[in-house]
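Is this the right way to post structure tokens for a design question? Let me know if I should format differently. Anyway, here goes:
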């Protein structure tokens, strides 16, 4: 029996991955370990709640006993759990260092003792390369992370590699670009802008709106990870990029068109501190293993808008009733819009 341990499986990508694996591998068992922070939501796993091959464990990856016990039984560990929002890391970095670096260390220590472990997948990010003015980042490029989130992920990325180099834990590292799709927490730009537009609220666009992100559909990311479980080489890094580089201003207009709302909703606001201008990934390495995207960006974005339109039950309570989210939103955006010309 193949057993996959997914950390952070109640979050956006993790929950999509849990469902993807259960769907693609009829005889595999999946355990989700998640602390259920503000970003972890059991609703994301609603579809698999009654699937006997899935087990949900509420717990913290920083807790040695919990982590060790679960890692021991795993054939694959796919480690998504992290603090993930750049703007929050700029407000307060401590939790990012703790979860993303120390939490990864706890899991890697447990992995040293795991008798059946075939792969430990460290989910890293394209942000570890830093801002890329020209060309595309290759797996061998230097890491130049420029915000506390990116730096904590770079620390975890290299720590994971060190456990391969030193102890031969069968680690691989994946560096994906910006994901989009259903169940993404409405602090990230696509769900925030869709849900604001649906309610005629302004869309706070940072700086000049010319920053570029490379969009990857979450199911395409899941397919890449699934392929890598079986076709990767321990110790290697794999970029997973969407090949859809879009300026934020163009993305914003596309969202408004899909929702059917006017450009007057765009509100230019003060820029993010240290805002990386552009990310871009060279994906030749994973393509040689046979991975390709199934989702064209225009279709994927339209489906995503439709998902948020049909699933207000999922995001409306977060945005309207969750006091922590409302506090965060005020702290993040209240001052930002003042004095910036629209
Ligand atoms: P998310 O914020 O939606 O989910 C993170 C999950 O981790 C949540 O369910 C949360 O409860 C859980 N978690 C946090 N701290 C934990 C802890 N101490 N113990 C156990 N669980 C904990 O994040 P996401 O966007 O799904 O990202 C998942 C992973 O993918 C992260 O490692 C992130 O760095 C990486 N990544 C994300 C993107 C993206 O575009 N979203 C792109 C590249 C890489
Ligand atoms: O590149 C991969 C990374 O993508 C992941 O590692 C991170 O976990 C994930 O959060 C994401 O980081 P970004 O900072 O790129 O995503 P975010 O959705 O926060 O912002 C995308 C772009 O949109 C960025 O240039 C900032 C801009 N933005 C964002 C928000 C929230 C705005 O203009 N206004 C906003 O309100």
């Amino acid at each position: 029996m193949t057993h996959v341990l997914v950390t952070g499986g109640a979050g956006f990508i993790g929950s999509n991955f849990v469902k993807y694996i259960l769907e693609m591998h009829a005889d595999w068992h999946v355990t989700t370990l998640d602390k259920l922070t503000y970003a972890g939501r059991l609703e994301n796993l609603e579809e698999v709640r009654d699937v006997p091959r899935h087990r949900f464990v509420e717990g913290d990856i920083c807790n040695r006993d919990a982590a060790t016990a679960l890692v021991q039984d795993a054939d694959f560990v796919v480690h998504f759990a992290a603090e993930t929002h750049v703007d929050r890391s700029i407000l307060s970095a401590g939790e990012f260092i703790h979860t993303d670096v120390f939490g990864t260390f706890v899991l890697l220590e447990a992995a040293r003792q795991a008798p059946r472990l075939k792969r430990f997948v460290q989910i890293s990010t394209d942000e570890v390369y830093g801002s890329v003015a020209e060309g595309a980042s290759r797996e061998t490029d230097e890491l130049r992370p420029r915000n506390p989130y990116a730096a904590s992920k770079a620390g975890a990325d290299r720590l994971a590699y060190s456990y391969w180099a030193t102890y031969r834990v069968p680690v691989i590292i994946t560096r994906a670009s910006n994901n989009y799709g259903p169940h993404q927490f409405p602090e990230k730009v696509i769900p925030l802008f869709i849900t604001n537009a649906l309610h005629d609220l302004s869309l706070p666009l940072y700086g000049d709106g010319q920053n570029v992100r490379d969009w990857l559909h979450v199911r395409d990311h899941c397919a890449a990870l699934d392929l890598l479980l079986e076709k990767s080489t321990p110790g290697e890094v794999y970029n997973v990029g969407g090949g859809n580089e879009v300026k934020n201003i163009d993305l914003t207009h596309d969202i408004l068109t899909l929702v059917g709302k006017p450009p007057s909703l765009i509100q230019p606001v003060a820029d993010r501190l240290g805002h990386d201008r552009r990310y871009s990934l060279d994906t030749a390495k994973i393509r040689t293993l046979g991975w390709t995207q199934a989702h064209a960006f225009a279709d994927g974005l339209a489906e995503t808008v439709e998902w948020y339109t049909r699933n207000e039950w999922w995001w409306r309570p977060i945005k309207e009733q969750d006091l922590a989210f409302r506090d965060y939103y005020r702290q993040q955006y209240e001052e930002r819009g003042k004095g910036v010309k629209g």
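Format looks fine. Someone answered above. Worth noting: The longest strand covers residues 119-125. The chain has two domains: 2-180+215-240, 189-212+245-276+299-331.
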